[in-house]
């Protein structure tokens, strides 16, 4: 990496802005967050309410989770200051994700327990507890179980938060050359994990997934996904040190679309037929990192963006609630439309694609947005502020050593799994 912000022979760019100058607010990343949440919604449409000729495209929406992991690392590093301390940082992260997570786990559990066999009820409750206590993604048999398939990513985020206060200061002290090699190494690690899994569990058209705990763990666990988060950390550290990507937003968007088109053309390959085999994250993570950097650079330069306008920012603010609850809304509608009463039934006996489902999908989308907006306004935001005032107070940074630090900037910049 080289810095376009430095002249030859000049001192290296400071890790933190001089005299504590705040970094610009990155509102566009909030709007971008909504697009990623919508992509995840569409990926679940292809399972619960499939629409003809859309499966191969909508299924790629699951890469929205990869985007959130990359974005999370970027935003947390962008807003990290010398005044941050580990305890208050953990308190702020707890306040951000946990209150709404409880709702996102409890509501679908209460809706599904009445239809669950007695033998399955206890398992569902244990899975719900693992999700609320943020260790679901460490238990292979529970990662894809439970009442909502999205909660595993919160367990990953909890691990990322745990290591972040130790990783970020180290990354911010490295040189641009070091950060460049670190980015390359992280991408190679991601591909190494996938190639190892393909060797240990060869992709087949009809896998049983029996005895494949290693494949599940290697696909969804915090250890398997931390490289995506760290890629975002490295990207933000490089930008803070003065590096500027030569790609504009159009160029970065073009690369993302090219990667997705290539994956679509390979849609019938055995390694793309099931998410656990797919290399979607390996392909998209570096492309998403470049896109996040390009969008951030545009906001830093003061350019206007439709992503930073009111409606998109509002949707981005609601996106965490939307991410947690959209599957529940989709499932409750789909279970009545197709007379399937468990999530497993949808995967074991796939529903047929129908254009009629389009109207049910639009209904689910509208309801999910409405519920998310109400939850954000009357529960998520008040609960977060109450908790942050008690367990997440930020210690003022030392004079001359402050950086981008305002709490509202943290919210405006974006987060994971859908928002910080």
Ordered list of secondary-structure elements with their pairings:
Layout: H1 28-48, H2 55-58, H3 64-78, H4 86-112, H5 118-132, H6 140-143, H7 152-172, H8 176-200, H9 213-220, H10 222-240, H11 249-265, H12 280-300, H13 310-338, H14 343-348, H15 357-391, H16 407-413
Helix pairs in contact: 1-3, 1-13, 3-7, 3-10, 3-12, 4-5, 4-7, 4-13, 4-15, 7-10, 8-9, 8-10, 8-12, 9-10, 10-12, 11-12, 13-15
Structure description:
The protein is an all-alpha fold and 420 residues long. The protein has one domain (19-413). It contains 16 helices and no strands. The protein has helices at 28-48, 55-58, 64-78, 86-112, 118-132, 140-143, 152-172, 176-200, 213-220, 222-240, 249-265, 280-300, 310-338, 343-348, 357-391, 407-413. Helix 1 (28-48) runs parallel beside helix 13 (310-338). The two termini are 27 Å apart. Keywords: Acyltransferase, Membrane, Transferase, Transmembrane, Transmembrane helix. Residues 1-20, 397-420 are annotated as: Disordered. InterPro entries: Acyl_transf_3_dom, Acyltransferase_3. Residues 27-375 form the Acyltransferase domain.
Q: Give the % helix.
A: 55-70%
**Order of helices and strands, N to C?**
HHHHHHHHHHHHHHHH
As a percent range, the share of strand residues is under 5%
Sheet with most strands: none
- CA-CA gap between termini: 27 Å
Indicate the radius of gyration in whole angstroms. Answer: 21 Å
Q: Give the structural class.
A: mainly alpha
